[in-house]
C-alpha cells in the first residue's frame, strides 16, 4: 500500500525516484531517466528502443525513461524533484544547465566513475567543441549526447528560380542579405509570400543570436560563467544586422517562432532558415523540394555555437544507481549507437569514432548534408551559459526581442541587458 501511494505521489509530482525495493527486487537497480522531448520526430520511440536493448544486455538494471516535456520543463522538474529528495538518477538536460546544476549541488562529476583505461579513453573521445559546455573547474559534469550546431537550410529550387547558384549558398553576411533580397517574393498587393531568410527569435533567441555574434568574432561570456559582454560593440553590430534584415523587408518583422520555422520552410514561406541540425531528419522527411544545408554565413569569421543536451548523474541517488547510470550513459554513447542516434535524429554524433563507423560513413556519402554540422565543429564556440543561467539568459532574450520588435535600439537593448546580467552575476564574482 505504501509503495502504491509513493508511486502515485511521484507521478503527480512529475518526478520519479529510483529506489531499490527489498526482497524480490533487491537484485535490480532501477534508474529513472528524465528525457526532454523538444524536437520533432520519433525520438521517444528511439529512446525506448535504446533502453530496452540496454536492459537486455544488463538484466540487473532497469531503465525507466520519463518524458518530461521541453528542456525548460525538464530542468524545472528535475530540480524540483532534487529539492524534494527524489531526483531522477540521470537526465538529459541542456549542456548550458551545467552551472545551475552545480550551484544547486544537484549532480556529481562524471570523473567519479571513470576508473579504467577504457573509461578514460571513452571520456577523451568526445569532440572538444562539445566538452566546452561539459567541463568547468577541472571536472567533467556532463556527457555529450544529443548535441548540435545551428546550420542554414535553403531551398535549392527557390535559389534556381531567383537566378542564384543552388550549390553555392551565401558564405558572408553581405552575400546572405543580397541573396535574401532576391529570394523574397510578393503578391500583386505587395504582401510577402516568401521571405528570403528567417532566424527564429522565440524559444532559444540567445542561441540563434550567437550565430551572428560568433560570425562577428564576439564571445558573449567568460569560461567561468561569471561575466557577460552584451554591450560589446561587436555584439551590438550583430544585433543591428539582424534588425536590419527585417527593416530591409527580407526577414519577417518582430518575433519569429522557433517551432513554426521548419513548417514555414516546408510550405515555401521562407527560402533560407537558421535552425538546429537536430531538425535535419525532420526536414529530410517533410521538405518536398531539393534542399541544401550550409554552415552559418559569417562576417569577420565562420562559426556557430554548439547546442543540445548532456547526460548528468544526480547526487541524491544511491551509489549503486549512480554506477548503473554511468554504465547506461557509457553504453548509449558508444560509436555504433551514437551513429544510429545521429541518423535517426539529425543530431551531431558526439565522437569522431562514431563518424568512422560503416553505417555513418555510408550515410554521409549518400546524404552529405548530415556532415555539415560536424564539419562546422572546428569553428564552433561554447553555447551561452553562466551561473544563474536562466535569469541571465532571460535578460539577453528580453533585450533581443525589444530590439527586434523596435521598442529599443540594439545599443540600448544590449546596454540594459548588460546592466541586468551584471546585477544577477554580482554574487558569483
From TrEMBL:
It comes from the Bacteria. The keyword Transferase does not apply. It is found in: Periplasm. The keyword Signal applies. CDD domains: PBP2_UgpB. GO terms for cellular component: periplasmic space. Transmembrane segments: none annotated. Pfam families: SBP_bac_8. Keywords: Signal. Residues 1-26 form the signal peptide. InterPro entries: Bact_solute-bd_prot1 (IPR050490), SBP (IPR006059). Belongs to the bacterial solute-binding protein 1 family. This is ABC transporter substrate-binding protein.
